[in-house]
Amino acid sequence: AIVIAYGKEYGVEREMAIKLGSSLGAGVSGLGEVCGAITGASIILGLKYGNDSNIHVRNLAKKFKEKHKGLTCRTLLTEDYPVIYKTHSKRCLSIISEICDLLEQEL
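Now predict its structure.
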């Protein structure tokens, strides 16, 4: 969702953005790893800042972790995780919104 929403501004057309983000959901293809919204935000920051993006990614991650226990779907969606890949938790929507707000601060 993040790559689709922000990609065009950095030269990524919608269809390519869909492909780029297609395996990010539920912590990389349902594995429960780093949240796809965080990974998507990292892609956008990379598109904007290139090799200088790391400081911005770290800032975003630090702010997010100050409020949450971690960066992984397995941590963020503990009771929902077993079904998250098929049904995405309502909590995902609020997390995506929060990541968008943090991304805006870094852009």
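The radius of gyration is 13 Å.
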